[in-house]
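Bug report (template v2)

What were you trying to do?
Predict the complex of my protein with DAU.

What happened?
Run completed; filing so the output is reviewed.

Input:
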Amino acid sequence: MTTETFEPKSIVVTGGCGFIGSNFVHHVVRERPGVHVTVLDKLTYAGNPENIACLPADRVELVVGDICDAELVDRLVSEADAVVHYAAESHNDNSIADPSPFLKTNVRGTYTLIEACRKHDVRYHHVSTDEVYGDLALDDPARFTEETPYRPSSPYSSTKAASDMLVRAWVRTFGLRATISNCSNNYGPYQHVEKFIPRQITNLIDGVRPKLYGDGKNVRDWIHTEDHSSAVWAILTRGRIGETYLIGADGERDNITVLREILKAFGRDADDFDWVRDRPGHDRRYAIDSTKLRRELGWEPQRIDFAAGLAETIAWYRANESWWRPAKEATEARYRAQGQ
Ligand code: NAD
Ligand code: DAU
């Protein structure tokens, strides 16, 4: 297979009002002047139209709707050169409390999109997660590669794994022009306050002690969301059809280390947090080997200074309280009910 160069003029971005999807839309508007973006987003609790409201109306259109709505999806896909699929139920803890929306959006929704892309022969990029590979032991020198067997642990990650499998089958059986990326943990602006880093930052702004699960030694491989966006664009335009690419920036850190960096930034003591109930089935460690993406497509992460990225993220949450405040109380009430 040869490396193709694909230059879409009009793309549908699903989930473009969520955390990573909206950062991708900002990236495309800034870096790709000739590209029009149609955002398809249901605006669940995790979607916020404010994330893209400042972008020019002639470059970005928001269509509020469900990726499971076959008629709507068919119309939008028929008018596009490509679909970049971010929309999902994305939070592990929620998937443990109630898996059902995860099945519908992550599996049925992906099926609806790839059926439309197949019908109209539209290029499709599938945004997925490293969690499909399960976890690694803390003392294991290995990292995930494109060859690692699927072994998802949570309702969330198993539905993402199912969606990846659908895409692979549609490529092989129907010739769908698709690529898949599996990325590690993102951080940056516009991330919902239910997630680890924003939850602790906003707790500290509120004078509440941060909450750490288990023994705090679980490792996540952090990447700035801007680096995720540049990788997805590289794969969409230059990736080989039918291939999977892992996205990561060598950012392994355990949770207690990240939390202590946040505490330090707030001038708080290193032990000024609460231990709370662990997540059932909590994955121990994720680690990405992104050699394939770097070698084949020449992609390199730019935002690799985690301390600088974290300081910027803290400053963003301090400056944008009106953005996160409406979600904070309901999120903490949900956690309290779960003992977390
Ligand atoms: P998010 O929860 O912040 O945003 C999800 C978005 O999808 C929201 O805007 C929501 O309204 C929308 N949505 C949900 N259900 C929908 C439906 N049925 N129809 C249309 N829109 C719907 O999620 P995120 O953290 O930005 O993750 C985006 C994607 O990236 C997901 O596919 C996730 O699996 C993947 N991913 C996330 C990370 C991470 O660290 N957050 C890492 C790797 C991969
Ligand atoms: O690896 C990619 C995945 O990263 C994505 O597929 C998911 O969509 C995204 O949510 C994220 O999943 P995690 O479960 O790793 O992220 P979360 O922010 O929920 O938790 C990060 C780590 O912090 C995890 O080990 C659990 C822990 N944690 C989380 C919260 C919310 C705590 O210790 N305390 C908390 O309050």
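What did the reviewer find?
The first helix runs from residue 19 to 31. The first strand starts at residue 10 and ends at 14.
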